[in-house]
Amino acid sequence: MLQLLDLTQNNIIATRANDVLAKNDYEKIQPLIYNIISARKKVKWYFEMEDCITKGLRTFLKDAATGLNSRDIHFTDVDGIEKIALVGTEKWVKYMYSIMKPFTKATIVYFDLFDKEKAVAWIMNQEED
Hints:
Strand content: 15-25%
Oligomer: single chain
Strand order of the largest sheet: 1-2-3-4-5
Number of strands: 5
């Protein structure tokens, strides 16, 4: 399940994946993405994955591939996503990166679960030097 986080505001979408992901999770965020792009802004997406997602990740990847192949899932205006912070354990972030990268020109950066604050700062453009 994809949960919207309080950080979601303006052109920032913040989500936490804490269980098996499915097509309806994509459908939950698609209107948010569309509204941001319609306002002529670029989407910044904070995507956090809890450890429990590992149980359902293979199912999600299979469902995502099936949905894309059958055109049940439609990615619109992939140029409208500026950057994505993938937050989680490295093992599972690699899978999500491989799913997201072909459908966006966004900069995708990995952050460990212990670096959530750095990921939030990066997504909000408050990077520390």
